[in-house]
Amino acid sequence: MSEGREGVDTVGLDTPPPLAVDRLLDDRETRIIVCCGAGGVGKTTTAAALGVRAAARGRKAVVLTIDPARRLAQSMGIDSLDNTPRRVAGAGEDGGELHAMMLDMKRTFDEIVEAHADAERARAILANPFYQSLSAGFAGTQEYMAMEKLGQLRARDDWDLIIVDTPPSRSALDFLDAPKRLGSFLDGKFIRVLMAPAKVGGRAGMKFLNVGMSMMTGTLSKLMGASLLKDVQTFVAAMDTMFGGFRTRADATFRLLQAPGTAFLVVAAPEPDALREAAYFVERLAAERMPLAGLVLNRVHGSGADQLSAERALAAAENLEEGGIVDQESGKAGLRDTAAEPPGADDDTTAVDRITAGLLRLHAERMQVIAREQRTRDRFTSLHPEVAVAEVAALPGDVHDLAGLRAIGERLAAGVPAGA
Amino acid sequence: MRAPGPEWLGSGDVSRLQVVSGKGGTGKTTVAAALALALAREGRRTLLVEVEGRQGLAQLFGAEALPYEERKIAVAPGGGEVFALAIDAERALLDYLQMFYKLGSAGRALKKLGAIDFATTIAPGLRDVLLTGKACEAVRRKDKAGQYVYDHVIMDAPPTGRITRFLNVNDEVAGLARFGPIHNQAQAVMKVLKSPETAVHLVTLLEEMPVQETADGIEELREAGLPVGRVVVNMVRPHHLDEDTLRTAAEEHRAGVAKALSRAGLGGARRGGLAERLVEPLLAQASEHAGRVELERAQRAVLAGLDLPTYELPLLGAGMDLAGLYELAKELRKQSVAE
Q1: Are the beta carbons of B309 and B339 closer than 8 angstroms?
Q2: Superfamily grouping for domain A14-185+254-301+394-411
Q3: What global pTM score does this model have?
């Protein structure tokens, strides 16, 4: 492999190094694992399975999920959304424990306001229409609150491992950007303009600026409607004392993500879109100097009969379906077996032939899927040959219970898909 | 398939704004593109809009990244044309300011201040007003002869989990901007979105989570008074085999299967021979497959309970490419004509 990596023409066929999941989970230095990736690749399930496995290996772990499917949440017993970690019964060995929670973004935002403003001010903020919309739905609130919650959990220091799922964003990168964006808004010039009537107005020597400002707020008022502008201004005035805190915490969380105790796992499925996002993510993490542990590749197909190619399987199926068995390749064995067939078994033989042909066609389909997945993965590997990969074999159904999560954890740790 | 709603009677009556949503990974971008191709029949012109800034359409059509500009991206069989536009909230806002307020330089000043950034990324709902507003503008746009510029506008929309909130900009904004231009704009957008001119389709796979999310999404859309169109079942695997029979029959005939494999030229059927060694994994694959078919059947029943017209698109063996896209478009045409 080390030789192959040097050669230009073999670079795409390189096998990536395996991702040692157990080593990551067992390492007491690992304090935070962030699962990120495109939507629909099994991110939340991966986070949950890692949590179950970590607890079984003696870690005191907490899984922060963002928007889990109902049955997955139920499988960890957290079908009520209350924004507090709950102990998961039946998970944890050797002193390990598993806790799990679902993020309630509005509640998290409210808690920040309550914790950082005096009672009267907090009430005013919570009742402000602009705040209510902002806390329930602005494009980055979920991302921001996920990071905020991560910071809180880490600060409590009740767990030795925090596993975070990331929100199903517009782009998988949003959760890295949202805190900065909100922070820069809250610190930015625009806020000062919004507050201009209250703050700048009347000050001597600022006359020129003042004219500019009021022209600007006039424009804003025209655009936003006076009532919205007033709500925003009231909100901004009420939040004024908290802005520094927002920025400080956003920065602290960002640094936490860069710290050595943090490991990012990029989750993907062997599909072009998902792996393209994974590649963007790998590049972005490198640019932000955030520690990437590796790629978890879910839903990988394998076959216990991969020595039999799709083409050969199809040819053999046709051969059987046509009934005329003219053996080309390993004629001797075939002829001998045919000859050994007892007389009168003809009908049975035809039925078995049909069944066998069906099995072969199924196998050909499977081999085609495997080949397609391999091509997609080769593209990723040739771009990022250094990224360690753990493969998780495709499961026939969804996960409903802890046993299912344990099974996924085992596949994750094994790192290579078991033959079908 | 059940009787179509009135908007599905013929190609001419199909909703003019078709919004395509679905759980992540179900292929909603592909479905939106195939739909745009399918609707661009006989010289018709469709516009495919992207609102999430991911350049998924460009990737799909093998084109350069799309600018904020409507450009022709494909020609449909029969001479129809597909245009594409990646809507950028910031540019849409600046356009809007320019159009209604002639705010060329003030717009730039606002941008410098961070006001544009505020409006397009932070202020709740405003971004969605801009994105849906631009799409609705394209729906209503007419040429000098009074004809619609686009026969259909197809939107590659945000995923199911966010679609209702995204389209229901009115709720969001009405509570905020109770009057003024943003309020008026939101009202105008909602008028189009809640009319029969619009249909929201949800793409799903025959898997538990996407189907559940589809059911939840439909409920939300209906509650919000948004017009639900179809459920598009994507990546349906071919079933040319009766898997159940296959599984049980094969189990009973292990030795026979080994011999048949051997006869077909796949090595020896004796213990340790290639054919014999193939039996176990082939049976395992069949059993796995049968399990999945069973699961798919259950999911189909759930979807049937939703009582909505459906489209069904096959899984393309070779993966998704431009040729595959045309194939899916053909399939969609066939299915809408068949009804």
Answers
A1: yes
A2: P-loop containing nucleotide triphosphate hydrolases (3.40.50.300)
A3: 0.82
